[in-house]
Amino acid sequence: MKEFIVCCLFFLLLSCNNNDALFVTVSSNKTQIKFQNTLTSTTKLNILNYLYYYNGAGVAAADFNNDGLVDLYFTGNQTDDKLYLNSGGLQFEDITTKANINNALPWTTGVTTVDINNDGFLDIYICKIGAHNTIKGKNLLYVNQGLDNNGVPRFKEDASTYGLDIASYATQATFFDYDKDGDLDLFLMNHSLYPNSNYGKGALRLEVDQKSGDKLLENKQGKFIDVSSEAGIFQGKIGYGLGVSIGDVTNDGYPDIYVGNDFFENDYLYLNQKNKTFKEVISNDKTTLGHTSHFSMGNAISDLNNDTHMDIISLDMLPENLKTYKTSGLEFPYQTYQYYLKNGYAPQFMQNTLHYNNGNGTFSETAYLSGIAATEWSWSPIIGDYDNDGFKDLYITNGILGATNDMDYINFISNEAIQKQLATEKSQRNLELSKQIPQKKVKNYFYKNNKDKTFSDVTSTWVSHDNSYSNGGTSVDLDNDGDLDLVINNINEEAFVLENTSDQNSKNSYLKIKFKGNSNNIFGIGTIVKAFYKGQVITEENYTTKGYLSSVEPKIHLGFGTTKILDSLQIIWSTNAYQTLKNIEVNQEIEVSYENASKNYYHSILKKQKSFLVNKDSLLNFKHKDSQSLEFNRDQIIPYASTNLGPHIAVSDVNNDGLEDLFITGGKSQASELFIQNKKGNFTSEQSDVFKYDAIHEDVYSVMFDANGDNSKDLLIVSGGNEFKGGAPLQPKLYINNQGKFERDTLQFKNIETNASKVSALDIDNDGDLDISILSNLLPWQFGKTPSQYIFVNDGRGNFSDASLKYGLDFQNSGNVTDIVWVDLNDDTYLDAIVVGYWMPIKIFLNNGDQLLLQKNTNLEKTNGWWNAIKVNDFDNDGDLDFIAGNWGLNTRLQASKSEPITLYSNDFDTNGTVDPVITYYYQKQETPFASKDELVKQIPFLNKKFLSYKDFAEASFKALLPKVKIKEAFKKQVFELGSSYFENRGDNTFKKHELPFMAQISSVNDIALEDFNSDGYTDVLLVGNNYNINTQLGKLDASHGLILLNNKNGFFYESLGQGFNIPGEAKNIKTIKIKGELFYVISINNNTPVFLKANK
Fold first, then answer.
1. Residue 747 to residues 639, 733, 735, 771, 804: CA-CA distances in angstroms?
2. Is residue 631 within 8 Å of residue 722, measured between CB atoms?
3. Do the Cβ atoms of 812 and 804 come closer than 8 Å?
4. C-alpha distances out from residue 905 to 396, 902, 925, 964, Å
5. Omega before 647 cis (within 30°)?
6. Is 963 helix (H, G, I), strand (E, B) or coil?
7. Which DSSP category does 71 fall into?
8. Given strand 1078-1085, what is the order of strands in its sheet?
9. pLDDT (tens digit, 9 = 90+) per residue, 219-230?
10. What tens digit of pLDDT does each residue of 984-1020 get?
11. Which helix (H) or strand (E) segment is 992 a member of?
12. Cβ neighbours of 413 (radius 10 Å)
């Protein structure tokens, strides 16, 4: 901890002396903004009897007196709200009293603005807690009455007139035109209070709780009427709404809603159905977004990568600091988490999430890969183009006065006597206990958009303010100099006003757009702007509620780099009428008017690109069923399970009728099935009796080949899944094809038991018949141990003998192998092997007819990864063979390199007769165990006695945790590469690695298909993946929905984005099949039905 404090002080001093920072903190002596959200705990109101006591308050930016300068309104939890009039030159006047604002009673939360009566003056809507302990309140609406003789706006509280004097546990509100009738409706986000007592099945969200449940109110002739139930809005007591954003995420012209819920409840993504109803997709389909943030706080909807699709950011409280991470409460263990999912909840993990919109109704979560997953206890994502370079950046507010997830404090208050004391709720002792909660006063983060879907932490170079307890905030051009400033509401200290100095230090340009809407929506709320320049499109939407508890002025600010004139500007109003302006000069504010708009943008302009593949309904009456993995019961400290690896598909003409049939493997206790195709393109399950006897086996791979030379396709199945230690469930099964009917050959492979990963049929000895290779990825129940690989030689009549030893120990002991490609690399007519797997480098074996010789000096010696798949082709058309290999991906907490590897230490560290697989990785230049303290002490109990507190554990280095002798003697394996990669053959079977593009790294790549999708003569690639069976501390690899990489003809690939197809779930295997003369791709999905994609040539 001492080193941490010294480090923080060093960076603090560095920051304070950074005279070249993009943002400068403006003193309150200059701004005259003295507001601070001061909290005073009492026995009746503190963190132990109001769980959101430290959640802070918001700030609204708006020009309330229409003088062209943006004013500021601050809310306070226990202090008076304040309204500051902008006098120019970053100076403000407190006009709270003059403006007739009087909101002194607790508890105020969020604030937004709206012109409720369409008189051209912005009004203020304030959220409050309705009734809790001593708090009694209702939401307030301060209606702007216009200006007095001194230009000061006067307000009148008039919420009841509009039906907006709502008494609930209100967090924030947002105004938008949900039904496209031209006026503004209201979504009110509320929160519940008691997470422990309220926890139950997810179906509780379908019940109605008037105080805790969210509300949708329709504007009916100026009166707001609750239509929540009719519209499909969840109103349950399990909602803990902290963040709400509006945006058109489906690009259909109708606004959608994202609600971030704290604790166990799902976030909600409501898709507008265009008929006054919404469909909430996260609870209906867990693959659309994949996982979300767990303890969701503020969120934002914006197009962050300039692809015209709205993306979603949600913040959480994952620490960046390693020691804080180790002392904080983390995720549930895997088995507990599975129970949580079965209770009706969607996958959630403690991390910031960034969901990039794929444009086909799906999203890919990339926060780790994008560099923004961990930012401490975070509240508000304030998005804006702060350097005016054409891409939106990110400012994140941070800090908590009482970090209630500190594990040492949790252990302290878990004492039975203290728990009984807490049950009294209101006492002096409870007040004292609340003051012992550790504080987390940390920096706010600044991230610069790198224009490639990643962000760089520029906190130390862009901003110079101190650590804080910051909550709500807003971005706004306070001084009308063309760049976005920042205003932040802090707890127990004055608000930050951060002046952006890019106008002084940059030649980048900007444009501000002001809106003159229709008579029922004067400020054009919901208008979408698309700016076209230099092949780029910047898209932004005009909504005032942004970030956390806060709001922005109803204008849009865009940056354009050094561009001076825009090609065009499309203005799409909330009614879908649009107008196009051309040749717009930058560095000015323009006003656009609704009266100049016409037609319907979505009928006239919007066009969709052709997709190479098109989803079709599944043609198989088959749903794969895999049991919940038990591997984490045995080894809680491992990063991934080796169970649930199926299903696999084999395609061939079984009955020689000229039509391709399909075989798909089943999970443990599920029989594999054979499907025969008829002339109509339909598939029928046949011969089920043949396979049901071995249903207990977890079949993971199969191959159809002519084993005995009778010109019929026989079937070989291998099993694995790390379920069985040995016996018949791990024996390969050969079925001989007798006139289209399979019969089990019980004599073959009866002496082999292997936890298999793949089986291949090939002629390894060039004798004209097909031999067999069987791969294995593990020794059952022995994490990381090296299994044997097998070669079986065919005598031409379907009798197979084990020739593994003949072909060499190097191949037999090559590693934890997952995939292999047999191909002639050196033109000697013999098939050579390229092998990939876990904890091993990619290996090449040349076949000389007698042995498989391991090749050295291939530049592959340090490619140790967690490789899943490989495909070989001459991708650059230069006459030699290159390959693509699918890896774990780069989108988790784990990273690996040659200098900072992931390491497996296998040893009996606690001398109890059981080998413990301890995995470490490097984080912030420090080797650290992957597992948490709670996980480690269950596997290695002596650690609990050695490190009594989480603080002690966090401060100990890895080498101090375990006996040094045991670490030294441990069997070690390492990983240096996690990125999926293309390996270019330099012409001599040495290879140069090229990491595949961003979207190929967002999840694991489990299989690869090759095809010239765009018919340009170069081979392209289809990638599929995802892995749900990984340790909960790593989240979930679920971001892939299938990706096509197009060959750029120069030896690499680029992403073909905007494709219309979707491959949801854990995709394991790709096969092509002809159906009624047309090409289809069939993708097997773990625990689901196969996906059929039709080639759209």
1. 39, 10, 11, 16, 18
2. yes
3. yes
4. 38, 10, 19, 12
5. yes
6. coil
7. E
8. 613-616, 1091-1095, 1078-1085, 1067-1075
9. 999 999 999 999
10. 999 999 999 999 999 999 999 999 999 999 999 999 9
11. strand 991-995
12. 16
